[in-house]
Each structure stands twice: as structure tokens, then as C-alpha cells.
């Protein structure tokens, strides 16, 4: 499904996924569309909006942005107008494709952002996994920690960014996760809140998390991760330890 999140309070609980656990955020949604093959969602409120797609993927749209999906059986294909952050559920049989002004980003399962860069095309930044970016100017593969700017006029080039999270200046942070190792989740939560998050034990660090967070307090985020992954935790305003 494609849904538009309302301003109603969010209900959160944990569900088991495979051998690990994942914290899932659920909201109330309004559904809209017609009897055809296209569904549309927009962030038309006073800020960014987070949506859950029918395949379990998450997308956060910046204010004024719009995402539409075509009804294709062999791929998950979307057209984007504006800026969006994606956490894509893995599905080998159906590639996930985002098209923005002739720039195409194709993935199987990853986390990435697409944003327009005033008159220069679109910037694609990859947090996790790999994305193939195509435009009339050429094609490149972008890996985690890398960024490219693609347009119809210039061949895309790839460069690595030291502080990728800092570049993704979302008001609520870039906290969307799809089957992401807890070690990576902990690093990004620590960055978002300016606190330390320590995960003890190799097995716990590899447990997977599928979740999205908005403006929740640091303690609430950590406690939900602990409950979802079966960890015990000690948390203060500046330090969290999961074990």
C-alpha cells in the first residue's frame, strides 16, 4: 500500500522477525487513489512525512515532495518530485526504481536519499547497500558512504563523504532502517542524539532491525531497540549500553 500519515499519535511495539527482532513504527493512515494502476502520496503538511509502502519499505518525504507509484508486476517503480529518504525492503524478484527528472536510481535493498540540487540535477547519497544511477549522461554504481550528482547533461561522478549523516540534514534525522545490523543502527542513533550507544557482544551487534523513528526522545528509541532485539539496556541522557 501507499498511505499518507496523519497527525495522530504513533503506536509502537515490537514484533519478531526471523531469528532477531525488529521494532516497527505504525501510524494511522489515510488512503487515496483511484481504480487505475497509480497511487500517489505527498508531504503536504508543515514538515517531512514518513510512509510505509506495501512491501514494507519506508520513505520519508520532505515538505512539498510527491511520490507516485506505477502498477508494474516485475518491479517497484516510483516517480519522485522533490526530496526523499528511502529504506528499501529486499526483494530480488522486484527491483526498486526511483525516477526523478530523467535520473533513475535502481536498487534491490538499501537505504539512500534523492534530492534535487538547484539546476544541477539530482544528488543520490547511499547510507547502506548499493544503488545503480542512470541518466542521459551515463551510469555509475554508488556504494555506502558515497554520493553522486546525476543530470541529463553531465556524466555522473562518485565521491566518498566523510560525514554522510551530517550531510543528510533531516529535521528528524535519517533514522529509517531495513534489516540493518544493530551495530550500524547504534552508530546512527548516537550521531542523531549526540550521545554514546554501546552494543556489547558480536552476536547482538549483528541482530537486524527494521524500524523508523521521528522525534522520539533518546531514551524511548534506545528502550525500543532493547525490547526489539532482546537486549537488556542501561540508558541515561548521554550513554546507552545494550547487552
Explain the overall architecture.
The chain has helices spanning 164-167, 182-193, 202-205, 218-229, and strands spanning 4-5, 11-17, 20-26, 29-30, 38-42, 49-52, 58-61, 66-70, 76-81, 84-87, 96-100, 103-107, 111-116, 122-128, 130-135, 138-143, 146-150, 157-160, 176-181, 196-199, 208-212, 233-235, 239-242. The chain is mostly beta strands and 243 residues long. The strands form 6 sheets. Strands 5-8-9-11-12-15-16 form a 7-stranded mixed β-sheet, with no helix packed on it. Strand 22 and strand 23 form a beta hairpin. It is globular and about 50 Å long.
In brief, what are we looking at here?
This protein has 243 residues and is mainly beta.
Biggest sheet architecture: 7 strands, mixed
Write down the Rg.
18 Å
Q: Strand content of the residues, in percent?
A: over 45%
Which strand order does the major sheet show? 5-8-9-11-12-15-16
The helix count comes to 4
Low-pLDDT runs? 1-36
Q: Which percent range fits the helix content?
A: 10-25%
Q: Mean of residue pLDDT?
A: 84
Sum up the overall morphology in one term: globular
Number of extended strands: 23
Distance between the termini: 36 Å
Question: What is the N-to-C succession of helices and strands?
Answer: EEEEEEEEEEEEEEEEEEHEHEHEHEE
Structural class comes to mainly beta
Amino acid at each position: 500500500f501507499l498511505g499518507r500519515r496523519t497527525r495522530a499519535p504513533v503506536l509502537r511495539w515490537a514484533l519478531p522477525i526471523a531469528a532477531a527482532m525488529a521494532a516497527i513504527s505504525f501510524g494511522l493512515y489515510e488512503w487515496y487513489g483511484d481504480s487505475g494502476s497509480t497511487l500517489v502520496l505527498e508531504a503536504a503538511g508543515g514538515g517531512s512525512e514518513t510512509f510505509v509502502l506495501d512491501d514494507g519499505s519506508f520513505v520519508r518525504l520532505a515538505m512539498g515532495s510527491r511520490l507516485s507509484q506505477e502498477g508494474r508486476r516485475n518491479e517497484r517503480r516510483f516517480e519522485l518530485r522533490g526530496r526523499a529518504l528511502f529504506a528499501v525492503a529486499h526483494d530480488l524478484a522486484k527491483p526498486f526504481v526511483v525516477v526523478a527528472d530523467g535520473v533513475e536510481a535502481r536498487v534491490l535493498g538499501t537505504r539512500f536519499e534523492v534530492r534535487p540540487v538547484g539546476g544541477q540535477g539530482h544528488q543520490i547519497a547511499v547510507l547502506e547497500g548499493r544503488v545503480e544511477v542512470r541518466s542521459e549522461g551515463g551510469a555509475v554504481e554508488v556504494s555506502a558512504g558515497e554520493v553522486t550528482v546525476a543530470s541529463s547533461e553531465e556524466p555522473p561522478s562518485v565521491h566518498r563523504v566523510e560525514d554522510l549523516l551530517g550531510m543528510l540534514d533531516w529535521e528528524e534525522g535519517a533514522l529509517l532502517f531495513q534489516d540493518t545490523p544493530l551495530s550500524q543502527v547504534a552508530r546512527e542513533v548516537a550521531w542523531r542524539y549526540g550521545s554514546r550507544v554501546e552494543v556489547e557482544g558480536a552476536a547482538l551487534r549483528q541482530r537486524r532491525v527494521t524500524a523508523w523513528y521521528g522525534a522520539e526522545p533518546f531514551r524511548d528509541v534506545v528502550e525500543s531497540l532493547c525490547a526489539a532485539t532482546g537486549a537488556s539496556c542501561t540508558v541515561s541522557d548521554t550513554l546507552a549500553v545494550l547487552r
